[in-house]
Structure formats: C-alpha cells, structure tokens
Design goal:
mainly alpha; Growth Hormone, Chain: A; 17 helices; globular; transmembrane; transmembrane helix; MFS; transport; MFS_trans_sf
Amino acid sequence: MTEAKTPGRRIIFLVFAGMGLSAALVPASLPLVADELGVAVPDVLGAVPALFGGLLTGVMGAPLLVRSRPVTWVLCAGVLAQGTGLACFALAPSAPLVVVAAGLVGLGFGATEVTASASARALARTATTALLGRLMLVVALTAASAPLAVLAAGHAGAGRLALLAATGYHLACAWRLIHDASFRGSATPVPTPHRSALRRLPAGVVVALFLYVGVESILAGWSAVTVETTLGLDPSTAAIGTSAFWVLISIGRLASPWVQRHLRPARAVQVCAAVQTVTLGAAIVAGPSGVTVAVVLALAVVACGPCYAILLGHALTVVSDRAAPSATAVLIGVGAAGGALIPLAATLAARASGTRDAGAEGSAAAWIALGAAALLLVALARTREHAGPPEPSEPVLSPRPDPTTVSPTTTRHP
C-alpha cells in the first residue's frame, strides 16, 4: 500500500462506521421518540418500512446519478442525507415527520452503500474481499454499540442527543470527503443493474433473497420495540434490544463458514429458515411478552446470520465475472425491496386489525415474518430441484458474500 492511498482508506472506514450508526439508531430510538412525543409506539413504527423504502430508492437511484455526477459527489450527498435525516428524526415534532425523516436516512444510506462499496473496491486494488470484510466488521461493531449511546442519553434526560451527535459525525465525514484529494481520485464507476443480469440468476434464490431480507428487516426494525414489550423495559432502556440484535446476527454471520462447510447452500439456508419458522411460531404461541419470547426470538436472529452471504454467493456461482457486478446490483435491489415491502405488509396488517398497542403490532409482524420464513423454505426447495450447473463457457465465481449490505440493506442491510 502506498502512502497516498492511506487517507482514502481512513475516510472509507469512517463512512462505513457512519452507516452502522444510521442502521442502528433509527430502530433503537423508536420507543424513546414515541415516549417524548407522547404518542403510542405503533404511531412511529411506520419508520421501519420508510427506512427500508428509502434504502431501496437510494440503492436503485445511485447508479443512475453517477452517470452524470462523480462517484465521490454521490457518496458525499448520501452521507449528508443520512446526517440530515437523523437530525430531522431527532427534532421531528410529530409522528408522521418521524416516518418521513426515517425515509431520508434510508435514502442516504442506500446511496452511500452503493458508492462507498464501489470506492472500497477501487481503494483495495487487490485483496478486495479482505478490505470489505473489515469494513463489514466496522459496520457491525458500530451498530452494536450505537444504541448504548441512546440508552445513556435517555437516562440522562436527553434522549435525542445521540441522534444529533450522529448528525455531527456524518457532517464531519462529508467535510473530509470534500477535502480529501486522494479519496476523490480512487472512485470507480458504480455497477448498474440490468434486466439481462436478472434473467441469468436462479429464480428461487432471487425470491428467497427477497423473503429473507424482509424477515431480517422485521427483526431489526422491531428490535427495540420487541424488548420493550416482551421484557417490560422502559423506553429509555429499550434501545438495548437493537444492540442485542446486532450482536446476535454477528454471531450467526461468524458461523456462516462452518455452516457452508457442512451443508450445500440451498440446504444450509433451508435449515436456517426452518429454525426461523419454528422460533417465530414459538414466539407467537408463547404470547406477546415474557422471557421465553425474547429467547426464541434471539435464536431466530442468530439463524438469520448466515443466510445473506450464502444466498448471494449461491446466486453468483452461475454468473460470469463480466456479469457479476450488474448481477450483484440486481440482488442488492431485490433484497432492499424485500426489506421495504415485507415490513410494510406487517405495519399494514397491524393497522387493519384495528389494534393500536405495540404488543399487537409485534404479533402481526411476527406472523408476517413467519409466513415469509415458511415461503423461504418453499422457494429454496424448488431451487434445489431445478437450479443447474453454471454454463461451461463462462468462468465461475466462487461463492462470496455481498460486500454492500448493513441491514439494510441492506443492507442490508439499516
């Protein structure tokens, strides 16, 4: 590594850490924000699908923007959008504005996710996987620790201070991006999704990815609210649920290589989906509150951990090196769509039931997640039967995780 590249790498690590902040702070702050606004928690739960809907828009829109703007320009705009959204989220005087602010955070997150990952690849030159693996670790560590700041601020009587501090962090990152010449010179074009790439991918895996990200997004988006309702914690303490989510899903991701050594990709995700189905069903049967519910939901989160990398790697084994960037962009978009639409279905189902308490909304979300996990089993059963070997005329990529997801992405997934 030359000395000239070092500043660019520092900036990209800071940007990825900021993505971890955004991914964790919105769901972690929902009970506290609802309490400070004097509204019921269900009134602000629309922020979850709004966050992932914004993420989808950013993921799909960033490749179009870079056709007429430099990648660093779009990256800086994404960072600023995250900071602005968090500030609006902290200062919003009503529940509808909280939802809109969450959408702005997601929009910035999506644009940052795509452009920062492309820039990271350019900075790495070689050993891209190693660099991106470290960047994903930074996201996970930041997302696991950020809710603790919400907890501390809430107990100090300044619940939204953590959100404003994160805004300052994003503004500082944007300033560094603008003034770092070595980073500006490192960016490369962002892969654009094409329908032709979608046709090359196994249909069952694409459907499974949509469903899986939806399940994970429900578990992530409702993490603080779930802890509040199941364990009876007060709003200023409920943020610990989001920290727990990130720790648990990181454990699952660390187990992914072991799982892949012992099971074929489709079978591995089927096993994880079966665990999710059983644990979500057990949580529904056990009732809306209690330690048992929290424990079985924790097992569901761990079971989610290995799935994304396995699904994406399995899909990319049938794609040539030349088509891989476009196929990856398509898969990111499919995952983001699942992350937006399945939580939205959970929110709409709760509204249709006419109930307005967090426990009832959590039960509706659990039912939707249970249905998605069960469909995931069906989708992968068909994939295992019909997915054929890659075309011999095309070089085959070895399975690899997608480098661009938080939660929400992704992405993340936020």
